[in-house]
């Protein structure tokens, strides 16, 4: 391993733009990169702009007819075919949609190639993590599933076991679907309960197809779950599973929409807890995957207050130069925020929280607690498949 970290970035990814008023505002990407640069993190990593994913790469996950439909809608948005999930409120067609989507996918695929080849220990693509796209349909603001494509590319390169951990507030349904019957891939998703949030999937009982029982793990968190519960659930499930599965590479999705200020969901997680999970994923990659770590972005719709800080912490952790939570945010970035959005920017890289959690193994569980019920439901459904005690 080289010990280097790689950041995938091409300014053109901000062309992934569903239009004014859509929650997936590309300014969140631009502001994240500007914050990365303001802290000098672009000098602590190797910044690489990869080419767009070609059709042969996209077909590792997506159907040829769907790719053709995206191309058609990209050339003529008015002709978008709703049967492919295009031209909907969630995924309105826009000019250049194929090119922008393929570019984001190309960054994640190149990140996977870098960590597998040893060109980098860790690679980050915060423009990626578009985990809802299905093989033949756009869904949930996602056109091409770059996360699934990164996993598929690792398998194509020879990986025998790849783990995917998704901490977005929404279930990582598209990645789960792509590898439902593939025992080489373990997908783990922690998300708000499907009763209360899109895409209404991700129940504990979803544990993989007949050809790969136990390959999918889902933790359905009660609405209102905050730092302690979120971290408790993560540490009660993810480390044991990774230790048992022994992945050769770890792909993680770091949607920032678990945050208490996010307008589209109902968890109450702080920036500081999100940072703690990013650190945990980094440590788990070294403990169980020889350091091979591909870290992706995802959802997150508090585009000034939350997303840039969370993903800048992610880049800093991958670079081996983590930022202290109390680090002041330079005034130049705050001025850039105001110039682009007319919003006031945060002043520090913290929400002022000190994340702690009760350890599941040491302190046991409370059968009357909704969070512990969720943890136990997941462990009972999934752990025996990997030879673990619930």
TrEMBL record:
Domain Histone deacetylase: 22-316
Family annotation (InterPro entries): AcuC, HDACs, His_deacetylse_dom, His_deacetylse_dom_sf, Ureohydrolase_dom_sf
Keywords: Acetoin catabolism
Coiled coil: none
Pfam families: Hist_deacetyl
Keyword match Isomerase: no
Pathway involvement of the protein, from the record: Ketone degradation; acetoin degradation
Gene3D superfamilies: Histone deacetylase domain (3.40.800.20)
The organism's place on the tree of life at top rank: Bacteria
SUPFAM superfamilies found in the cross-reference section: Arginase/deacetylase
Entry similarity comment: Belongs to the histone deacetylase family.
Official protein name in the record: Acetoin utilization protein AcuC
Native source organism of the sequence: Streptomyces pactum
């Amino acid at each position: 391993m080289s010990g280097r970290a790689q950041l995938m970035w091409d300014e053109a990814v901000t062309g992934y733009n569903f239009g004014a008023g859509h929650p997936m505002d590309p300014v969140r990407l631009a502001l994240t990169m500007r914050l990365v640069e303001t802290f000098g993190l672009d000098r602590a990593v190797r910044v690489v702009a990869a080419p767009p994913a070609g059709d042969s790469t996209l077909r590792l996950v997506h159907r040829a007819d769907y790719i053709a439909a995206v191309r058609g809608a990209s050339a003529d948005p008015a002709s978008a075919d709703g049967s492919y999930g295009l031209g909907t409120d969630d995924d309105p067609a826009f000019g250049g949609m194929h090119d922008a989507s393929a570019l984001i996918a190309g960054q994640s695929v190149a990140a996977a190639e870098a960590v597998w080849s040893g060109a980098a220990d860790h690679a980050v693509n915060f423009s990626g993590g578009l985990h809802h796209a299905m093989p033949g349909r756009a869904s949930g603001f996602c056109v091409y599933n770059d996360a699934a494509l990164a996993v598929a590319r690792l398998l194509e390169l020879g990986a025998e076991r790849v783990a995917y951990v998704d901490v977005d507030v929404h279930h990582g349904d598209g990645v789960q679907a792509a590898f439902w019957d593939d025992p080489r891939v373990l997908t783990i998703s922690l998300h708000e309960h499907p009763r209360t949030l899109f895409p209404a999937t991700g129940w504990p009982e979803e544990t993989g197809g007949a050809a790969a029982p136990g390959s999918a793990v889902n933790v359905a968190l009660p609405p209102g779950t905050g730092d302690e519960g979120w971290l408790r659930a993560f540490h009660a499930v993810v480390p044991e599973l990774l230790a048992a599965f022994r992945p050769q590479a770890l792909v993680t999705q770091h949607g920032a929409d678990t945050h208490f200020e996010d307008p589209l969901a109902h968890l109450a997680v702080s920036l500081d807890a999100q940072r703690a999970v990013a650190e945990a994923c980094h440590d788990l990659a070294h403990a169980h995957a020889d350091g091979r770590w591909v870290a992706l972005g995802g959802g997150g719709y508090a585009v000034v207050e939350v997303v840039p800080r969370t993903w800048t912490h992610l880049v800093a952790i991958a670079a081996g130069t983590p930022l202290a939570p109390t680090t002041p945010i330079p005034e130049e970035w705050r001025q850039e925020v105001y110039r682009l959005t007319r919003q006031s920017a945060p002043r520090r890289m913290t929400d002022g929280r000190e994340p702690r959690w009760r350890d599941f193994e040491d302190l046991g569980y409370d059968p009357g607690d909704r969070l512990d019920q969720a943890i136990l439901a997941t462990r009972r459904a999934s752990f025996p498949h990997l030879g673990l005690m619930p």
